[in-house]
Fold this sequence. Notes:
Largest sheet: 3 strands, antiparallel
Mean pLDDT: 78
Strand content: 15-25%
Amino acid sequence: MSRLAPRSEAEAALEPIDHGFSIVSHNSERCFEAELYRLQARDKMANRSSAEMTHAIIRGKNGRRYEVDFGDSPVRVEVHASEETVEIFVEADFETHAEERRRFGIMNIPRHLFSEAMGQAARRGAKKDR
């Protein structure tokens, strides 16, 4: 069974992951890059409380991943819905930064897909409660 580094060793554990990212940025080793992201996420999950886990990850058409890590900053979440779409807006630094400097994530989802996913999540939750 593998063991994650304790908090005091967390920075040292991230050094080889960061070095790996510097290597894959110059080649096409996407499987290795995906494994680095998995290890990085696992380390973050092990070394943060659930209140500090707010983040957004997207992958663009070009295959690149982008991440907005809100850290332990307080976040504001807004959900707006129309007949066609549901928009989820998450913003950090709203108390301390000007609007153009705040970290944020916005996702617009077709309403029927959002409703379907929420129904599936509710059914999964109901099965766990039994």
